[in-house]
Give the backbone structure.
Amino acid sequence: GQQLNQSPQSMFIQEGEDVSMNCTSSSIFNTWLWYKQDPGEGPVLLIALYKAGELTSNGRLTAQFGITRKDSFLNISASIPSDVGIYFCAGPNNAGNMLTFGGGTRLMVKP
Amino acid sequence: GAVVSQHPSRVICKSGTSVKIECRSLDFQATTMFWYRQFPKQSLMLMATSNEGSKATYEQGVEKDKFLINHASLTLSTLTVTSAHPEDSSFYICSAEGAGGLDEQFFGPGTRLTVL
C-alpha cells in the first residue's frame, strides 16, 4: 500500500528557531495534508495542498507540494513554545476512501 | 469551524468489560466517520470506516466482532470495545468527513482507554 515517510522523527529546538520537516512517498499523492496533534488531543488540519509545486502559508507555517507529487515539506518560522506537538503529513489513498498518515514528527521547543 | 466531540474523554475499566465510545459531529452532518487507534509515540492507524445506515468497513487485522461500530444517525457513530483486555488500551480518535470529502476530515479530541 501507499506509505508516507516523515523525517525527522523528532526535533528538539530552541524558541525562535526555524523548523523544517518533510514527508516522502514512493507513490504519487494528489493531495497533501499537514496536521498538528497537541498532546492528548486529536489532529487539527494546518495546511492542505492540491497542486504540484504549490506553496501555501498559514501564519508562520509554510508548506509545499513537491513537483514530483511524491514529497512535501512543512516549515515553521520563529518557533514558539505552543508549537510543541506532533506534526503529521497525510494524503488520500488511490481509492480515495481513506487517509494515509505519515509516522509523525515530534517537535519540542525549549523556551 | 466544524466541531467533533468524543465521549468519554478518558475511561478506565476492568478486563472483560465492554466500553462504548461516542463520536458526534456537532454542527454538521457526516455520512462517513472514521475510527482510528493510536498507540504511544505512533501514528494514527485506521481501524474502520463508519457509514451512516450501513455496515462499517474494517481494515485488515481489525476484528469486527471485537470493535463494534454503529452509525445510527448522520451526527453519531459509536465504537464499542467488547470484552476489553489490557492490550486494547490505547488512544481512540474518530473523525467525521465534511462536505469536502476526505480532505475535509474533522477529528475528535480522542478517548484514552485504559484496561486494567
Notes: Chain B touches chain A through 21 residues (CB under 8 Å).
